[in-house]
Amino acid sequence: MADDVQWRGPVGTGRIPRHGSTRRGNRPRRSGLAGSASSRGVLDRTRAAFPSRDALLATLAPRSGYGRAYGLERAGDNAGALVGPLLAALTVVLIGVRPILLIAAVPGVFAAIAITIAAREAGRAVAAPAGRRRISLNISALHQHGLIRALLPAAPFECGNVATTLMILRATDLLRDGGRGLAAATSLAIPIYAAHNAVAAVAALAGGALIDRLGSRAVFAAGAAAYVLAYAAFATGIRAWAWLLIAFCLAGIGIGLAETAQSTLVAHALPDRLRGSGFGLLGVVRAGGDLVSSAVVGVLWAALSPVVGFAYAAAWMAASLIAAIATVGTRQVPSPSGQINGVDQPGS
What we know:
By secondary structure, this protein is mostly helical. It has helices at 5-12, 37-45, 50-60, 66-80, 83-95, 97-125, 129-134, 139-144, 147-150, 154-160, 164-177, 182-214, 216-236, 241-269, 272-303, 306-327.
């Protein structure tokens, strides 16, 4: 859908059109919650709309500024995640851990309702034969443009990219081992996580500028290296809050650099007609890898120890770093259309 410029805007902003409303000259209609601000936020956080959003961003930004454009987008997303953790830390101190978990279930219910309605509207929108013809990931074309090879370092990265919830839980356990109670350890771990989001926002902005100068593969490698150090710190079991803060900040640097580099690489590697499929493939890699990484680390944590779990994640990040270093400096020839696909030059 995101490969079609007429679908790209409506889907990227959450305004899912109904049957036939994407024809030229027709204005897409808002449909229930799918067009509301709340459902757009849900769609964005669940990555349902990000292929269209990122493809649209590549259309609007100049090619020489893709890194800064995606860095700004990632910075905004991470900066927006600052208020929640800080408010949660204050609430934990005031009412405790159990009540806040019950309160947190309320927006989750509304999110589930919004996603259900948005998914139903999207299904109606693509029910027509014209809609079904547009849905294709175009793997063959993506491979011809070099995207499959370019994304090879992203696969091990996502296999090691564990949920931040596990990092918070690890930090809480380590702080409790240092003599703090559960409420005190939790209220300290959450602001440390907020620092992770703040650093990720700054790293995304700085990384975007570096990508436009040095290339996305080198910046991605730096992000993977930061994660190796962060996970190594979680595996060694440091208990001082200052060292845990450094570990979280390293993880923030890692995600800020890596996600910005991934998006920029896709935008540079593909012509406009394939960018939606390219970002869709990136989303599949991210979602699949994140699910596997968190599940496996959780199992290793429960069956063996958190040390083994985070050592496993660090090993995947090290593999991603090696793969990224191996591809730095590789070049491909321009396509017949004049687009340079997958070239490791400033911005790619």
